[in-house]
Amino acid sequence: MNNKIVVFICMMGVAAASVVAPVPVARVDPFPQYSYGYDVQDSISGDYKGHQEQRNGDVVTGSYSVVDPDGTRRIVDYAADSINGFNAVVRREPLVVAAPARVIAPAPLVAPAPAVPAPVVARAPIYAPAPAPLLAPRLPYYYF
Hints:
The chain is mainly β. Helices cover 11% and strands 34% of the residues. A hairpin with a 4-residue loop joins strand 1 and strand 2 (47-56). The chain has one helix spanning 2-17, and strands spanning 33-42, 47-56, 59-67, 72-81, 85-94. A 5-stranded antiparallel sheet has the order 1-2-3-4-5, with no helix packed on it.
């Protein structure tokens, strides 16, 4: 009797596993469109970067920029579509325009003044012994 119950439970497990659930059909937008961007300007940490992108159907265009540690800004402009694939153009720009170097006239040479020896000064003693106290003679008691 126990064997029949075990066989029945196994057959129910196989039957339940063979049931296929319907696959949900995803809705596809035939002409997707979006646009987004961000810009970070953090002077405390020195983090400067930005990104912007647009999509119109199968054509995606955008650019991003980041400040590299060497002080240049790297800008990447890109475009992607189903015909040409992904194409990017990278360019680098300096952040600060270098000012032309100014020529400064050298300081005139001046001869140093002759060295004069310091005068010799006698030193005072650091301490002197205290003078001995002067004590009055002791009078006998009968003088009072």
